[in-house]
Sequence to fold (321 residues):
Amino acid sequence: MFLPLNADPAWVTGDGDSTVRELIRRENRKPERLDTPTSALSKIQSDEAMEMYLAEQGLSLDSVLERDRIVYLRKVANLSAGGVSIDATHTIHPDNIVLAQDIALHFRLTCLGVDVITETLAKSWKTGNFGILEINAAPGIFMHLNPAVGEGVDVPSHIIETFFDSGKSARIPIITFNRISVHDLQETIDHILLQHPDWTIGAVCRGGLFVNRSEKVLHKNYNLNVQSLLRNPKLDLLIAEYPANILEAEGMFYGGSNMVVLDNPGETEMMLIRESTDHDTVVVREGNSISLRRQGLIEQYTLGDDEPFTRVYLKEIGTVL
Fold:
């Protein structure tokens, strides 16, 4: 779940009579401005950095601001420096959500905070004027519970549900191929998404790495690709290719598959079915001969002259999922 929060630097609004110093003192008397970890706002501290920033604006702490004029007191929007937290959950642009998800996938983090500087999160990062300041593997969550502006979001419950999804199996279905092209892999993803449009499918072959149809960066260490997909807490299905050269060089990252599909396998690739049980499905093609094991029963037949092998295993996927 993506939970965005805007933060604006501390500011004061003129009334035509009060100095900046008096406006800050009045702002600090607000009951929500407490110097505690759980308060929505912190007190605004007057220091040399603030005075320098005011001077850049032609002002000082003794300047009287005209009515309704807003003056920012700092360049930074840190909440500890008096910044204002604003819930932005319902305004976030989808491109920015995908960017955060890709960052989490790249760094193999289930929970993280991404600090950015931008005009607004409602615009895509692709339009420019968007910079990443920090990636935090242990982000604070109190500001989401009690933002200064907007509704609070119960972040802790979402985090706990992600790590501890009680009452459900901790293992997602896995389909393993010994040989599959990028084209056939994408066709398989599309076939499954037609039946399960809300699923998140992670898929990897020697030619590419995908989350649904979105292509990601393929790492040269093959098993790191598999590992990064399995670290995704929202993953509903893993599809992975394990040809002989990878099995011999790196081995497998996981054990057991709900479905194994072997296309003219060599001796090394036959190891993919050794851990399968009677509840798993195994499809093996040797030439035009098909051997299908399902629920402990074996079926054998011959492919038609123009019958693609994809038709065989796509038909069986529905019985597995």
The CA atoms of residues 223 and 253 lie 6 Å apart. The radius of gyration is 28 Å. The chain has a mean pLDDT of 86.
